[in-house]
Amino acid sequence: MTAPDDLARDAPPQRTRGFMLEWRAMTARTYVRIVGSLREPAWIFTDAVLPSLGMCSYVLMYRALGAPRSYEAVAVVGGILSAFWLNVLWGMGAQLYWEKQQGQLQLYFAAPCSRMAILTGMALGGVLTTTLRSIVGVSLGLWVFHVRVTAVDVGALALVFVITMTALYALGMTLSSLFLLYGREAWHVCNALTEPVYFVSGLFFPIRALGTLGYVSAALVPLALGLDALRQVLLHGAARGLLPLPIEIGGLFVFAVAFLFLARFALERLEALSKHEGRLTLRSQ
């Protein structure tokens, strides 16, 4: 029979056990997000097809007006990113609020892992599922509208995409805590943030057309900066970029770090409320 001292000696270090717990929690939540989204066909339609309709209308409008072909590519990239923004709002921002309404939020706080691991898994699952569904927008742009892009630096494209997604979903983590912390209006806040962010981000037109407002929105909304950076990588000078690409990449990095810190702070605040007041998980509060 193995002695207790031998079991303690053979057990992995506390730091390793903690890392494995966080890793398993993150991958488990990613798995649930991916499998759950594929089991609901209606979500595939609303997340993949509907965001592409606005893109199609802008592409057809630019074509009817005889605008430069680069404007069509600008609209296509915006239509693809719109799907990610909707997922950030509804799949991340409102998620904890919905869990509370369903009576499941207490499971998040009772779990032995950190809440950041759970939200990170939700974010990774959201990125993967939305990336797969964005293939609809890419297919429409390349094979239906025959949108042209110049030679692409794959490394720069991957870097900008990853850091843009990190900034966007870190914002979603922060919003999920704020929506839950400050009341019952998460649904209305998500609706209110959809179209204004589309406008100030230059979703279907070069953000430079907004003038001074374009610079303000780039300093406040990561979607605007990430969208402009992706267009510059794909279209180069035809993208009519707002700022030089290295500056926009640096700004996205700052957004990502800042929102990750804010998300962690908000989650710690939520945990304190749930322990000291004992009312955060009640549907009536």
Fold topology:
Elements: H1 4-10, H2 14-38, H3 41-65, H4 69-93, H5 95-101, H6 105-110, H7 115-133, H8 135-144, H9 154-181, H10 186-200, H11 212-220, H12 222-235, H13 245-276
Helix pairs in contact: 2-7, 3-4, 3-8, 4-7, 4-8, 4-9, 4-10, 4-12, 5-9, 7-9, 9-12, 9-13, 11-12, 12-13
Observed structural traits:
13 helices, mainly alpha, 285 residues, 78% helix, single chain
Written overview of the protein:
It is built from 13 helices and no strands. The N and C termini lie far apart (53 Å). Helix 3 runs parallel beside helix 8 (135-144), helix 9 (154-181) runs antiparallel to helix 12 and helix 11 (212-220) crosses helix 12. Helices cover 78% and strands 0% of the residues. By secondary structure, it is mostly helical. It has helices spanning 4-10, 14-38, 41-65, 69-93, 95-101, 105-110, 115-133, 135-144, 154-181, 186-200, 212-220, 222-235, 245-276. It is globular and about 60 Å long. The chain has one domain (14-276).
Beta-strand portion reads under 5%
Count of helical regions: 13
Largest β-sheet summary: none
Structural class, from helix and strand content? mainly alpha
Instruction: Kindly report the average pLDDT value.
Output: 81
Q: Which residues form runs of ≥5 with pLDDT under 50?
A: none
Q: How many domains?
A: 1
Question: What helical percentage do the residues reach?
Answer: over 70%
Helix-strand sequence: HHHHHHHHHHHHH
- Please give the radius of gyration in angstroms: 21 Å
What's the overall geometry? globular
According to DSSP, the number of beta strands is 0
The first-to-last residue Cα distance is 53 Å
